[in-house]
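Much of what follows relies on a compact textual record of a protein's fold. The record below shows the convention in full:
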Amino acid sequence: MRRDVFQAIADPTRREIINMIAHKPLNVNSVAGNFDVSRTAIYKHVKILTECGLVVIKQYGRERYCEAKLQKLNEVSDWVEQYRKLWNAKLDSLEEYLNKLQADDKATPKTKKNAKRK
């Protein structure tokens, strides 16, 4: 089963694994040692990360090292970017509207509520 990158980053443990191995490859036992869950659970997380292409396992002697392949995160970045553009446009429009209201308010003469009564 081929998983997608969105499924991989949906879990905080997997995000932390990616963060750890983004800086340097680590063996699976080193990765597992940083979590309060079983080694089997970490292996399952690593398997999901491998299936979606964010991690590659390389064998060096008897050790298996997890190496990050972060190019797949561009897919997430591209998806988020479309919404960033949308919200920036909406916020720019709101700013223009508020500036117009403020300019109109300054242009309109104000009447005194407490005018002197005779």
The first helix runs from residue 5 to 9. The helical segments are 5-9, 12-23, 28-32, 39-51, 73-107.
